[in-house]
Backbone:
């Protein structure tokens, strides 16, 4: 709580520590002072191997659990609840470096068109207008799916000459991001022609302040937003090996900006990354693209 972590991260840490306590109980360890580095290392091994009740965790999930355990022991040692920190010398496993998955601009346009008709089409129904506005917003701002579903009406400023949105990211950090023309028009069409009807379906005394609503007039959930994206990807007829996840449009947003010549520091601010090193992974994609163009275009690139 002191670090301002997201509620979902806190809940993940809670689950990790409950599992850690169960593993320690099976080893006969009931107090913090009894725990040794071998116990912590054994917990990490159990995460990667799995057991009768739990499937083996991926490296990233196991790393998160070990980070939670290290935080517990560091806190206990600092507060005098234990004489030593047995987790200090047990580092979390390093996940393999994977490039973010981005799709091409043509594939993005197919995905957006598959979400629903454009804002100028009078035949679009309320859900289609919402779905198109959601995906246009994700690609037009680089917002995380949780930032989009958590967005409230008063955080949008579409009537200005340059439309803006205030996004609340990880750790409750706020950032101001421009809203592109396509996304702004899709949002305006949704807010005027679709959202009032969705809001009317709510049985609550007060209307939800959320921008994106579900069919019952409540705030659209992350799972609901993922379902919208998944359905649109299926209709778009993208190549069979194309993986489309809630982060795909965010990755594509960053990659296309860098391909277009945007400064990496600007992209860092738009994405809400605390460190530019997190954003630098996208430069690897653009370097690969440069290599492809060079190999296909330069007369003496191959030989």
Residues:
């Amino acid at each position: 709580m002191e670090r301002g972590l997201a509620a979902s991260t806190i809940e993940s840490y809670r689950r990790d520590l409950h599992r850690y306590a169960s593993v320690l109980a099976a080893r006969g360890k009931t107090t913090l002072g009894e725990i040794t580095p071998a116990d912590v290392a054994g917990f990490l091994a159990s995460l990667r191997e799995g057991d009768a009740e739990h499937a083996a965790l991926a490296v990233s999930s196991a790393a998160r659990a070990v980070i939670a355990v290290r935080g517990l022991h560091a806190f206990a040692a600092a507060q005098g609840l234990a004489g030593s920190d047995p987790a200090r010398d047990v580092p979390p496993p390093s996940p393999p470096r994977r490039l973010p998955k981005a799709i091409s601009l043509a594939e993005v346009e197919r995905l957006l068109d598959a979400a629903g008709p454009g804002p100028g089409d009078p035949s679009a129904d309320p859900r289609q207008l919402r779905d198109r506005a959601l995906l246009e917003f994700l690609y037009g701002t680089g917002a995380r799916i949780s930032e989009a579903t958590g967005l409230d009406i008063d955080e949008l400023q579409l009537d200005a000459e340059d439309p803006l949105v205030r996004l609340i990211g990880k750790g409750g950090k706020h950032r101001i991001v421009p809203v592109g023309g396509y996304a702004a028009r899709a949002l305006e069409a949704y807010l005027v022609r679709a959202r009032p009807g969705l809001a009317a379906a709510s049985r609550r005394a007060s209307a939800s302040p959320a921008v994106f609503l579900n069919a019952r007039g409540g705030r659209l959930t992350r799972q609901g937003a993922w379902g919208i994206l998944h359905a649109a990807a299926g209709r778009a007829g993208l190549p069979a090996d194309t993986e489309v996840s809630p982060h795909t449009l965010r990755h594509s947003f960053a990659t296309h900006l860098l391909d277009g010549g945007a400064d990496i520091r600007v992209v860092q601010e738009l994405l809400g990354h605390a460190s530019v090193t997190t954003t630098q992974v996208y430069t690897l994609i653009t370097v690969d693209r440069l290599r492809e163009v060079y190999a296909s275009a330069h007369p003496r690139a191959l030989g």
Remarks:
- The longest helix spans residues 7-26.
